[in-house]
Amino acid sequence: GPSLVRWEPSGNHYVVSFGVKIVTFSKSGDVVRIIQAPKPVLCMEFLSEGVIAGGCEGGVVQVWNILSGEEIHHIAGLSARVKAIGHLRQADIGLECGDDDLPLVIAACSDGVVSVWRLEDGQKLGHVNTGARITTLICSTYDPSTVQKRRRKKKGEQKKEEEEEEEPEIKQEESDDDSTATSQPSSSKQKAKRPAAPSQTDRKEKKKRVEPKEDKKGKGKEKTNTPTSSKQEKGKAKSVPK
Fold first, then answer.
1. Cβ distance 50 to 31 under 8 Å?
2. Nearest CA to 114 among 151, 78, 72?
3. pLDDT tens for residues 204-227?
4. Hey, which of 24-33, 85-94, 124-133, 149-158 has the most confident mean pLDDT?
5. Which of 157, 177, 175 is nearest to 167 (CA)?
6. 38 in helix, strand or coil?
7. Which residues, including other chains, have CB under 8 Å from residue 38's CB and lie 6 or more apart?
8. What is the Cα–Cα distance from 185 to 191, expressed in whole angstroms?
């Protein structure tokens, strides 16, 4: 059965590998071309429109035209079977390239070795032993200036976020100050509402209210004093005849 499926960048065709066979289909599902590989294909990667590279058993990388079936490039001598494949444009990493602008091919083998190859002459440009069984490659360019710009941009965004976080705190403090300022007049109003000290007229009125009680007591005294005075008068009356 099929083991790998890859779509062309334009989406007009897709390629399916069946062991040592690679079949090109149109987007409608019609068979366009059948390509015979020397060994089973384990991984595939489109290098450009209509051009695909396949990593095979036995440490071989082959490049085909998916429409004509022609073999364009052949790289042999890899350390082990090729499990993953990727590519980079030479211009993107500052290398001079020919008129064809052929990309560099990066291959990862089952023994953990990742190597870089030039398609024009099949020359290996470098390799590294990762000590791991790599099954997938993602290739991208590294530009130090771009990385620095991204870092500066990130720092600027972080600083902006910190300033935005500080602004609500300042506004909160200002609102607190405003609330205290507004609360002070209210306290003065409360002070103004406090009852004033009683005036002289108020005291006089209060005295008048108390005076009736004193009058009652006075009347009581008059009542008690009246009999004594009448007795004295009687005594005086009796003394007159003598």
1. no
2. 78
3. 666 666 555 544 444 444 444 444
4. 24-33
5. 175
6. coil
7. 20, 56, 60, 62
8. 10
